[in-house]
Amino acid sequence: MADDLDPWDEALLAALQPAAAGELLTLEQLAEVGGISPIILEVVVREGFLTPKVDQPEPLFDPSDVIPVRAGLALVGAGLPLGELLDLARRTDQAMRPIAEEAVEVFARFVRDSVEATSSSEEEASQRLVEAFRAMLPATGELVEHHFRRLLAEGARKRLGR
Predict the structure, then answer these.
(1) Distance CA 123, CA 8 (A)
(2) What is the pLDDT of residues 33-62, one digit of tens each?
(3) Cis before 57 (ω within 30)
(4) Are 61 and 55 in contact (CB under 8 A)?
(5) What digits encode the pLDDT tens for the residues 107-130?
(6) What is the pTM of this model?
(7) Do the Cβ atoms of 121 and 138 come closer than 8 Å?
(8) Mind listing the pLDDT tens digit for each residue in 13-41?
């Protein structure tokens, strides 16, 4: 499939790959590093909320993947039933996937097209696209996180105001 990609897509795909597979962990290593039961991690993987960064020759995970799992366990520890948490996670995933896909399309339509049109070479365009992507990915995450936190606080205020 990579043979069908143009140079810009290849550059963006490379930017999405981990820097080195040595920085990644097996599920068992992730469980050990995170102090999390391997069974819990297996459930989270099976549900699709934790996906390996590399699938071959074996699934490998980013060490930071323990952060959301620990957050979920903290919610369960505070009294939220695991089934309810998984249901919320599924619904959030279903709601966010189309938005994420649209965000990629917007990037392609506006940023990529502009960079391609104003670059003097394929190499320059590839470099500028990767730089834009690396800046936009965390910025988008921060924007979404901030908005969701605001919505949570607003919902809590409304509930407490009853």
Answers:
(1) 8
(2) 999 999 999 999 998 889 998 887 889 999
(3) yes
(4) no
(5) 888 888 888 889 898 888 888 888
(6) 0.74
(7) no
(8) 776 665 555 688 999 999 999 999 999 99
Q: List all residues 6 or more positions away from 17 whose beta carbon is below 8 Å from its beta carbon.
A: 53
CATH number at residue 78: 1.10.1660.10
Neighbours of 136 (CB within 10 A): 15
Residue 25 tokens read as 């962990």
In a domain, 160, yes or no: no
- Structural domain contains residue 140: yes
In a domain, 162, yes or no: no
Q: What is the number of residues in the chain? A: 162
Q: What is the mean pLDDT of residues 145-161?
A: 94
Joined tokens for residue 16 = 């999405």
> What token pair was written down for 80?
């939220």
Angle between helices 122-160 and 7-16 (to 10 degrees): 50
Asked if residue 23 lies in contact with residue 14, where contact means CB atoms within 8 angstroms, the answer is no
Cα–Cα nearest to 132, from 149, 117, 111: 111
- What domain range includes position 82? 2-155
Q: How far apart are CA 13 and CA 8, in angstroms?
A: 9
Count of domains forming the chain? 1
